[in-house]
Amino acid sequence: MKVSEPLEPARKVIFNPFLASFKSDPYPTYHRLQESDPVHKSSLNGAWVLTRYADIKKVLRDPRFRAEQLSGRIAAKSLVPRAAGDFAPLAIATGTWLLFLDPPDHTRLRSLVGKAFSSAEVERLRGQIREMVNQLLDQVKDRERLDLIGDLAAPLPVMVIAKMLGLPAADLDKLRHWADELSRVVDPLRSLGDYEYLNEVAGEMIDYFRRLIGERRLALGEDRLSALITAREQEDKLSENELLSICIFLFVAGEETTVNLIGNGMLALLRSPEQMGQLQRHLELIPTAVEEFLRYDSPAQFTSRVATEDIELGGKTIGAGELVYLCLGAANRDPAQFADPDHLDLARSDNRHLAFADGIHYCLGSILARLEGQIAIEAIVRTFPDLKLSPEPLEWRENIILRGLKSLPVTTG
To answer: Does this UniProt record's set of keywords contain Nucleotide-binding (predicted)?
Structure first.
C-alpha cells in the first residue's frame, strides 16, 4: 500500500465515542479519520468531526464559527414533554461559562474575571499549592497502595479554588462532589434524566454560593470572591446570576482540567518506564513534561463550534447552523504537526499543542492548571521512586468531551 493511500475507505471509518475500545484508546480512530476522512460527518447527531491540527486551529481562530450555546441545549431539553420543570437552576449555573459564549459577552466577562488568573496572580499561589500537595501526600506516603486520582489529583484543584475564593475547608467534599457531577453537562449526548439530576445539583450549588456571597458582601476580604463581588470594568460589574455562574464555573473547569492532566500524565509515565526514569533523573524537565502530557493525552478531547454561514473546509461544505466538534485530542496527535506523535517525549521542544484550545476561547485557567500539574507530578515522582501501576483494569469516565480516569491505582514499592 502506498503511503498516500488511505488506511481504509472513508465509508468504513466508524466514529463511535461510546465504544469501550474508543474510551480506552481513541487515538487509532483519530488517525484513521485523519488519513481518510478528516472532515467527517458523524452519524450520531449529524455533527461534523474535525481531526487535523491545521483545520482545527483554523476554525478556532475563524469568527465565522461561534461557540455552541449551552443555554440553547438546556432550553431544548426543557421543552421535552416529560421534562420536570424548565431547568432554570442549570441555566443560571452555566449561564456565563466562557467556553459557550461569544463576544461581546465573552469579552466582557473574561475581562472582569481574567485578572484572577494572570501569571502574577497565579505565581503568588505557588507556595500554597506546594503546601497542599505535601499535605495530601503526607496522608498516603506510607501506604503500599493508593489511588492517584482519589488521593491526590481530585482533591487538589478543589482545595486551590476554594483557597482562592476564601471558602471554608469544611466544604471541600461537597464542592468537589458538585463540581464532579456538574462537569457532565458539557457532554452533548446526555439524557433527559441526566439533565434533571444535574438541575438538582445546580440548584444546590446556587443556594450555597448565594448564601456565601451574601455573607461576604458584609465582610469583604482579600480573597478572589471578594474581588469578583467588587470587580468593575468601565462602570460594568457582574450581576448576581453572573457571579453565581462564574463561581460554579471556576470549580467545574478548574477541577476537570487539573485532575485529568495529573491522572493522564501519570498514567503515561507509568506506561513508559524509560521516560519515568528520565524524569526522575532530570526533574528540570517537569515544565516540558507537563506540556507533553497535555499533548499526549489531552484532558479535554473535544470543543464545539457552530458555523454561522456555509463554509468550505477540506473539500466539504459545512452548512450554516451546523455543529462542528473539534477534536483537540486528535489534533495533538497529528503526524503533520508533531514528529512521532504517538511517542511520549518529555523533552519535546516544538510542542504547540491545542490542549487549551486557541483564539479568544483559549483556556482562562491554563496558567493555574500548568502550575498545579507541575507541582503535583514533581512531588509524586520525588515521593514514590518505585511507583508502579496496579494490575486491575482501568476505567475511564463516561464523558465524550473530557478524558479522565475514574481511578488510578498504584503500588509504591
So the answer is: no
